[in-house]
Amino acid sequence: MNIADLQKLAQRTRSMREAGIALLFSSSILALFIFIPPLFAKEQSAPPITAAVAVAVPNAFVAISLEAKAAIIYDLATGETLYAKNADDQLPLASLTKLLTVYAALDKLSPNTPITISSSAAQLEAPRAFSVGQTFALADLARLTLTASLNDGSIAIAEATATLENRPQSEMLAGAAAALGLSQTYALNGSGLDVNASVSGGYGSAYDLARLAGALVEQSPAIAEATTKSSAQAVSKEGRSFKVINTDPMINTIPHLLLSKTGYTDLAGGNLALIFDSGIGHPIAIVVLGSSQKSRFTDGSALVAATLAHFAGIASL
């Protein structure tokens, strides 16, 4: 091969090398764009940084003012106490004792069990509605008794349950309270009437009564529902019809009411127990103890309104 041919080959090799280097450089640049996003692209795709902003939740319970010595708003669905005022204090229950009496009876007896009004029951002070010897199915007598807070009906129910268990009324009722874990609750009689000027027929805390009322609604929703109506009716085994009026004048003002029970004696003052559904399957218990005969209802209304405001996320209605 002569010098001219060598020069041509060298020139051709150099041109091919330069072309290869150019191709490699171009490929490298392309790879950078494909596989390594540019710095500006990273900055554009990065999510914006936002500062956390604390949102104050309104306290619907802070402004509550009650005459009651003790009260509670208890969430039966979650077991949470939403509001409490001396909720563990043991106070006279008056006719809220009848909730324990009916619960104890229905825990041991069939709803169709015949209950006869005894002479001791028929002689109790008002409210009462029956005569000696009249007989009712337990469920019917319980509906009448709780709706109108009847003393004769509650004692007849307590007597029948205690006879079945072969022990005094007070022991029978103590057993029912213990089974529910009601540590502050006991009763000397089934009606809650004061035994004398210094001893009540039943004692308990607002916390205990909230749980007791919830247990009764769960155990016997139909009987509990009767207490939410303006009146209750039943027919005795002898065929006599009875109609009684509800002792709670505010039943029509509370949405989705599931249970209402009033109580009043000289020792207890005014008491009230309510259960209402704040949503689908979300029962709330409200108990007021040691208020006045009138203010138990305004206290109860204030607690219901605060509960509704709480679940609405506002400070008040």
Automatic annotation (TrEMBL):
BP-aspect Gene Ontology terms: cell wall organization; peptidoglycan biosynthetic process; proteolysis; regulation of cell shape
Keyword entries, A-Z: Cell shape, Cell wall biogenesis/degradation, Hydrolase, Membrane, Peptidoglycan synthesis, Signal, Transmembrane, Transmembrane helix
Domain of life the protein comes from: Bacteria
Q: Per the UniProt record, which residue ranges are transmembrane?
A: 21-40
Q: Which residues form the Peptidase S11 D-alanyl-D-alanine carboxypeptidase A N-terminal domain?
A: 65-291
Task: Cite the binding residues for substrate.
Answer: K261
Provide the family line: Belongs to the peptidase S11 family.
Q: What is this protein called?
A: Peptidase S11 D-alanyl-D-alanine carboxypeptidase A N-terminal domain-containing protein
